[in-house]
Amino acid sequence: MTKALSGRQAQAARNDEVILAAARAVFIADPGAPISAVAERAGVGISALYRRYASKEELLRRLCSDGLARYIEESEKTLADNREPWLAFGAFLHSLVDADTNSLTQRLAGTFTPTPDLWRDAARAAELNQAIYARTKEYLRPGIVVEDFGVILEQITSIKLGDEARTNQLRHRYLTLMLEAMHRPGERPGGGSELPGPPPSSDELTDRWRA
C-alpha cells in the first residue's frame, strides 16, 4: 500500500506539478525563454523554483525525461494490445497526440545536453518503435519506414488553432487523414474512419493574423 504523503510533501508535489506544467507551456512556446518566465507563469518565486531545479538545463531534462517516460508507457501498452495491429497502431498515434510528447521533441531538441539516463530511455523508445513498426509493417504502404512516425507526429503537433481543446480536435482530425494515407492500398480494418470534429473555418484561419 502506498504511504500517504504528509501535508507538506503533498503541497511540494502539487507545486512541482505546477512548475512542470508552466515550464512545458513556456518552453514549447519559446525554448529560449528565461527560467524566470516559468516562475512567473507558475506563480512561484524564483528562489522556490531554484530549490527544485538548479538550472534551466535541469528543468529541460526533467521535461524531456517525463515525455520519454510517457512515450515508453504508451508504446508498451500498444505492444500489449490484443486488437488487430492496425487498430492498435492508430490508437497508439492518437494517444501520443493527446500526450503531446512530440511538441517537446520538436521544440527542445538540441537545447540541452542529455544525460546517460535520457540516452538510455531514448534507446528503449527506439527499440519499442521498431517492435511496433514490425508488427504494423504489413499494413503500411510501401516505402514507409519507422523514422517516418516521429516526423509525421511532429507535423501533426505543429497544428495550433483556437484554444487547447480546438487544437487537440484538429490534430486528431488530421492524424485520421494521415493514417488513411499511411495504410497500404486496399481494404482497411474497421473501414474508413470518421474525421473527428469539423474542419477549420475561414474565421478560425483568419483569426491567427489578428494582433
From TrEMBL:
Q: Which GO molecular-function terms appear in the entry?
A: DNA-binding transcription factor activity; transcription cis-regulatory region binding
Keywords of the record? DNA-binding, Transcription, Transcription regulation
Q: Which residues form the HTH tetR-type domain?
A: 13-71
Please give the InterPro entries that the UniProt record associates with this protein: Homeodomain-like_sf (IPR009057), HTH-type_TetR-like_transc_reg (IPR050109), HTH_TetR (IPR001647), Tet_transcr_reg_TetR-rel_C_sf (IPR036271)
Q: Which residue intervals are the DNA-binding region? A: 34-53
Q: Where is this region: Disordered?
A: 183-211
Transmembrane regions listed in the UniProt entry: none
Note whether Transcription occurs among the keywords: yes
The answer to whether keyword Phosphoprotein applies is no
Name the record gives this protein: TetR family transcriptional regulator
